[in-house]
Amino acid sequence: MTAPTADQSAEQLPRPTRLSDVKGWFFTADQLMFDWFLAHQQDRSVSGDLLELGAYMGKSAIFLGARKRSEERFTVCDLFDSPAEDSSNSKEMKKSYATLTRRAFEANYLSFHDELPTIVQGLSSVVRDHVADGSVRFAHIDASHLYEHVHGDILSVRELLTEDGVVVMDDYRAEHCPGVAAATWQAVANEGLRPVCITGTKFYGTWGDPEPLQKALLGWLQSRKDVWHEVQYVNDAPLIRLSAKGAKEPAQPVSRHRAKAAERPPQRPAVPAQKASAVRPAGRPQRSVLRRVALDVLPPVVTRAIVSARRKGRTAGR
Ligand SMILES: C[S@@+](CC[C@H](N)C(=O)[O-])C[C@H]1O[C@@H](n2cnc3c(N)ncnc32)[C@H](O)[C@@H]1O
């Protein structure tokens, strides 16, 4: 499964000091939902492993890894810098993930965790060769966003999930990837997938009974004044919609580089070289050209006499 990785020296590898430094697409509403579903499963001693199809630089994987129990396995499947096998997928990779390398993912992940997850470097279509059917309690589908791949990923995940496992579909309604929307709602109509809730970017569903999950989620949402929600009916089934603009984010995984960053003296904001002369401590007036020349060329005693005469003149004029 392993393929050669792109050459990348240690100096070029990322050293994120917090999760928000990691490149990716994993917003507060979904961080809250991942946190809620995983904690809910943990509170009910739901057993099972974790799975992510499509990790990119590791943003959601790092978050998921922090919620993994020690006896559980977390599998991450991504092409990383391996070639895709069809031209549409290659085009998608080149356009959206050109700078991705497995080493960058690993450097990011190890900034927050002592061990890497189980990595399957390859097409998501091979994931069933690496993960046992009926073993996964939480799966995040975020690999290729093209219809035929997403459709295949949904069918694989249906087999991999435990009876009441939860699947998350990324970008189920985004304009640039209508194939994800088609595959998601097709699975609802034809493959027995049952929606639990949606955010602006992700769809959460199960092949088990969504009702207890929705009941518990609504209870939690009522206690969160910073998270907006409503219930709509789609094909006679309830679907919770939520939005978390301005909401407090859940506990973040802590980077091992964080303490070092905090120890460094605060740095001045970077200023383009040509504008450096425009930066001066607040509240201090800019020196006139005449005064700067005087300071540079005249003996201190003469400079002091000129400054004192100018001050007296200014006071007299008030
Ligand atoms: C949207 S990104 C994942 C974002 C990540 N989950 C996050 O939250 O930051 C999609 C990833 O899927 C991978 N990918 C694309 N097509 C794939 C395929 N057919 N099989 C496996 N991985 C694929 C890309 O390499 C890319 O890293």
Features:
318 residues, alpha/beta, Rossmann fold, 2 domains, 9-stranded mixed β-sheet, 10 helices, disordered N terminus, disordered C terminus, binds S-adenosylmethionine, Class I SAM-dependent methyltransferase
Q: What is the first-to-last residue Cα distance?
A: 81 Å
Give the helix/strand class: alpha/beta
- Beta-strand share of residues: 15-25%
Count of helical stretches: 10
Which ligands occur here? S-adenosylmethionine
CATH architecture group name of the largest domain: 3-Layer(aba) Sandwich
CATH class of the largest domain: Alpha Beta
Q: CATH homologous superfamily of the largest domain, by name? A: Vaccinia Virus protein VP39
Radius of gyration: 27 Å
Helix content: 25-40%
Number of strands: 9
Work out the count of structural domains.
2
For the biggest sheet, the summary is: 9 strands, mixed
Strand order across the biggest sheet? 3-2-1-4-5-7-6-9-8
Form type: globular
